Automatic annotation (TrEMBL):
The keyword Transmembrane applies. GO terms for cellular component: plasma membrane. This is Diguanylate cyclase (GGDEF) domain-containing protein. It comes from the Bacteria. The chain holds residues 552 to 831 of 831 of the full protein.
Length: 280
């Protein structure tokens, strides 16, 4: 490349980076005001027992609607919330809201469903975090055994020594722990014996390729078998077709979550569809 060309591409990338920085700053300042302006809501995606076809529980998923920015995906704003420390307050909002919603839902049901909440590993570092969790669960009279915290494997591993005892304390308080997006991080298998978890969630990217790649099929079958040997619950995320579901069932995967059953639902829609159904 000529000097001029090099300079051209440098300027081009520089411009791209500046645009990204500008976008992030814009998101950050909007994010700071979002809680105060009630721009967040929580939706619930059912998790279905594959054997029975009945609901087992729901995963709480955060939604953000901002006047200027429209709907912003959590994939885009959670990392910024983590970097700025806003995740602590936002995370508590998700927890309080979902506990209130699902404990109320359960009070109207014969059999309670479980609630899964995504946790950023950064939240685990907050002082008195566990005290706050226990207090919130107590306030909403929901049994900690019905609550699962989903933590993404990749982030967890970075800070393993520090985070492990905190996870153990969560388990000691009766909460369940799930390794989210399983298979996308590094050397996942060795962590299964170290981390005090009771569930793994097979990442959507694997379920996507289940029917078209025999390698992926073998991988999923192996994950289920290994999970089984550690007596873990195995959840498949991103299940979109009956064929995927049938295959997962043949591997004896326990729980499925995905558009085949439901998109993430508002509390009203969850009530309408599932309030009077049985559990698995
Ligand atoms: P995740 O925890 O792995 O959640 C599953 C994501 O897959 C959700 O995206 C869900 O809407 C989507 N999904 C479920 N079934 C299907 C399907 O059949 N097909 C397809 N294409 N997608 C499906 P969402 O809600 O956009 O959330 C993205 C990620 O943002 C989550 O991934 C999680 O890592 C993070 N997140 C969401 N809410 C929270 C929260 O309250 N706290 C934290 N820390 N992270 C959150
Ligand atoms: Mg999750
Ligand atoms: Mg996941
Ligand atoms: Mg995921």
């Amino acid at each position: 490349k000529s000097k001029a060309q090099q300079k051209g591409s440098f300027l081009f990338f520089n411009k791209l980076i500046n645009q990204q920085v500008h976008k992030d700053l814009q998101l950050e300042s909007a994010l700071r005001l979002a809680l105060k302006n009630n721009e967040f809501s929580v939706v619930y995606q059912p998790q279905i027992c594959i054997q029975s076809g009945h609901i087992n529980g729901v995963e709480a998923l955060l939604r953000w609607h901002n006047e200027q920015l429209g709907h912003v995906s959590p994939v885009d704003f959670i990392p910024i919330a983590e970097d700025t420390g806003l995740i602590h307050e936002i995370g508590m909002f998700v927890l309080e809201q979902s506990l209130a919603d699902i404990s109320d839902f359960n009070h109207h049901r014969e059999h309670p469903i479980t609630l899964s909440v995504n946790l950023s590993p950064r939240q685990l570092n907050a002082p008195k975090f566990i005290d706050k969790l226990v207090a919130a669960a107590g306030k909403h009279t929901i049994d900690s055994q019905l609550i699962t915290f989903e933590i993404t494997e990749s982030l967890l591993i970075e800070d393993l020594a520090h985070v492990s005892p905190i996870l153990q304390t969560l388990r000691d308080n009766g909460f369940n722990l799930s390794l989210d997006d399983f298979g996308t991080g590094y050397s996942s298998l060795s962590y299964l014996s170290i981390l005090p978890i009771n569930e793994i969630k097979i990442d959507r990217s694997f379920v996507d390729k289940l029917l078209t790649s025999s390698e992926t099929e073998n991988l999923i079958r192996a994950i289920v078998a290994i999970g089984e040997s550690y007596q873990l619950t195995i959840v498949a995320e991103g299940v979109e077709t009956a064929e995927q579901l049938a295959k997962l069932n043949s591997f004896q995967c326990h729980i499925a979550q995905g558009y085949y059953f439901d998109r993430p639902l508002s509390l009203t829609d969850l009530n309408n569809k599932y309030l009077t159904t049985v559990c698995c």
